[in-house]
Amino acid sequence: MAIIINLDRILEERNMKSNELAEIIGITTANLSILKTGKAKAIRFSTLEAICKALDCQPGDILEYKA
Amino acid sequence: MNKNSLLKIANLCCNFFKMIIAISIIAITLFFFHFQLDRSSYKEWNIEKPGNDSTVRFERESTVGKKPVDFDKLKITNWKIGSLYYSYFKFTAILILIYLSLNQFGKVLKSVKELETFHQTNVHAFRRIGYYCLFIAGLSLFSYWEFGDYTKSSVSVSMNVLFTALLAFILAEVFKEGNNLMEENQLTI
């Protein structure tokens, strides 16, 4: 997949665990895992907004395009 | 009538027809063996000329000798062994394929009841139904009857079965698209 999810790196920088983030943004850890492993086919703007708010970052920090 | 009632009726019909077919297979097999052991008990049985259904048919009738065949006087006891075996295996195979098709359809109905309608298994089920219908059409292609001096062979294409196969393959594609949409929906975070 050309879109890379850099969620692990951002979480490490913020010293935050996956389950903590999942709890803050209101999704299950299983769904967060789907997103982190790149298995997700789409991401809602509301989810992206919640992640950016929780991690104090920009969408571009989480999503990266690689040709 | 709500959705569940319709599904229940469809499921009941499916099971009922499966039972009828199973009984028919047993009855045909019993007849097949009994007929060979004791032909005389069928001496009163006449042969009726089959009616035309929605088939494209090419047939050839022939008789040995000059006397024309009176169809009403043909007896089942004159059934030649080659034709008997051919007909038995052909009809049994067709009935088994219909049974398998109904079985697959029953699985689809069960998955709809369990709210797993657009599942990959239903795509495979409809494809299998399509292939079974094609096999049925293939088996129905050639008929061969031989009673005493009377021989009838025909090549017929059953349009109903072919349309059913086409419909099953189309439904398989519809369910495949439904499955793709469902997966996409499930993998949207």
Automatic annotation (TrEMBL), chain A:
Biological source species: Gramella jeungdoensis
Family matches, as Pfam families: HTH_26
InterPro entries in alphabetical order: Cro/C1-type_HTH, Lambda_DNA-bd_dom_sf
Protein name listed in UniProt: Helix-turn-helix transcriptional regulator
Residue ranges occupied by any HTH cro/C1-type domain in the UniProt entry: 7-62
